[in-house]
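User: Show me an example of a complex going from sequences to structure tokens.

Assistant: Sure. Here are the input components:
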Amino acid sequence: MKRMMTAMIAATLPAAAFAGEAEVVSTYADMAHAVYGDSLIKAQELDAAIADFVASPSDVTLAAAKAAWIEARVPYQQSEVFRFGNPIVDDWEGKVNAWPLDEGLIDYVDGSYGGATDENPLAALNVIATPSFELSGETVDASAITPEFLAETLHEADEVEANVATGYHAIEFLLWGQDLNGTDHGAGARPYTDYLTGDNCTGGNCDRRAEYLVSATKLLVSDLEYMEAQWAEGGDARAAVVSDPAAGITAMLTGMGSLSYGEQAGERMKLGVMLNDPEEEHDCFSDNTHNSHFYDGMGIHNVYFGKYMRVDGTQVKGESLASLLAEKDAGLANDLGHALNHTMVELGQIKAAAEAGFSYDQMLARGNEAGEELIMSAVDALVAQTREIERAVTVLSATEIEVEGSDSLDNPDAVFQ
Amino acid sequence: MRHLSAFCVSLGLSLALSVPLAPAMAAPLDEALSRAVNQHTIPAVDRFDVATAFLADVTEANCLPGNVKPAYDVAFDAWMGLQHLHMGPIEKNGRILAIAFWPDKKGMIPRTLSGYIADQDPVVETPEAFADASIAVRGLFALEYMLFDDQFDGYAEDSYSCHLVQAITHDLHRMAAEIKAEWNAPDGFAQTLLMAGEAPQPLYLSQEESVQALYTMLMASLENTKDQRIGRPIGTFDKPRPERAEARRSGRSERNVILQLEAARDLARNLAPGEMPLSEEAFAKTIALTEALNDPSFAGAGDPMGRLKIEIIGQNITGLMGNLANEVGAPLGVSAGFNSSDGD
């Protein structure tokens, strides 16, 4: 809350010096570098915690691994605002944060999960129990669950998006297991004995489960190393925005608007309420969805105000989009800042309720009016901030409206053409 | 219709009195906005209300699939004239998802319908309760399963499934009537668009923003048709997915693309400040190509030649959008904003 207040004050102060586009995109790239750097640091801690856990499985080491996962999500979710608008990130992010997943691909599931579906013949493969399987008429050797096997063979196998074999949510499933509580309180409750060797192993194939968990985490670390480097000095993602500051500003606004509206308000929040489906929770195994949404919102806030607090408490800050916009339209800059702050309050209320025991899956239950109100208020706030972002686009890219052939969503500039 | 023109007249008057217009750009913007709202959106809202009222009446009298199917098509046709307007009352309360939940990537509809039917869930007993049910058992796509899918369509009169079908159609009409009321009211969404900053319930600060919002709907709807209605069934060359075609069970996949293109053309014509010859040509060509497919459920996506023909329609839509940007967006001075399909 203190951070938010500070940001609000900063937003209402007149800009001390002229904030040029070049300085603003430089801050943006610095924040991206820091947020992926933090994600990497936290993934390395997760990797260490998981190594401890599989070396000596117990309730204590499992809890420590879960805690490391929850911490790792804090910076990563704040990075999502960099995804839309930067093709280098968008092309990559499916490796680390793909969702939702057909978890039966990976491991055992409850009978209520069902089997293969029209959409996904591998929905109930259980690769941990299946060292060899058929895919499109060919035999796949899954005898060693290496990072390469996960990334190159199993992930999006059969070109099905729900075959998520890698990233945070695959790891989450391997730590928590399925959440079988429906829209009642409670997360997944995988026992640590799923990782015991020998006769005490539960769930079968504990050695392969451990191999999977370790490989998936190593892969997450290496994927984050790649992205951190993309934003370092000399990295391609940094170069793309700093070499063309106007395009960088467009990328910033595209990321803010696309995450606010189509992705977070629509796909991740409204759809779950409308379906009353706890599987539509973003972090459905761990019941960490309230944080996932909160830190997505925080990422958008960070980009606008040009300030990111790192996981060690230090700050990355510089010339901001807010001050750039204030130079051109102080009223709009203020309105957009207020809209973003309002969203953080709404997302904060979801987080507060969830942390007090009213979990996100309970909010999704049919007829749960308090939950629906909480979620839909945040959705409305995200939609409202999108309108202000669109206004900022109009002001900041007034001279850049181009009329060429339009592109698909693959081209992040498409929304501004 | 009489009611409608009276409404337009009063609207025009209040607008002329209350909105000071900047001389240069205001006239084309003002005219485009007025045409798009009065000649495109209001008739589309009315048609959907009438068509769903018909569907609900027909289903009330006889709920069996053979009787309901023609009315289902009428209602879906009307929806295709409206579904691109992701705004105001159509978007409010998630109505757009409740009316048409597609794509259903996880097979929620058949799974949830089976659950409700097995449990004889009492939610069908009152409209209020049904309005709170999962969108997986509501709207046109749940109804499609009930009417056209072997797993569901064998029900008898007065069975639970029969009452479920009646509940779905009543719920559709309830939403359509609410949309109409909220669109056309004196302080409704039509006014919000037309009067912009001066509206009783303002959302857009200027007429330019209202026009931009409508233009965003135009472009987003075409992009959505290309990415979803075309993109999902064609999948990739190695892995076409005809089973993912929209409304394939009712054999409407091709028809929906045609109707969507026609709705977009109507909106574009109303928005365009002048002639739009290249867009007209591209619309005509794309619609003709789609009609020539003769493949109602896009089953042909499964073979390379059929797939290619469908893919070409998507490519034509891309070209069409370029023409619209030049002939509609640029002269109005607007570009498309964010849309609900941004993201995954």
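The lines above are the inputs; the final block is the predicted structure for all two components together. The beta strands of chain A are 132-135, 138-141, 307-309, 315-317.
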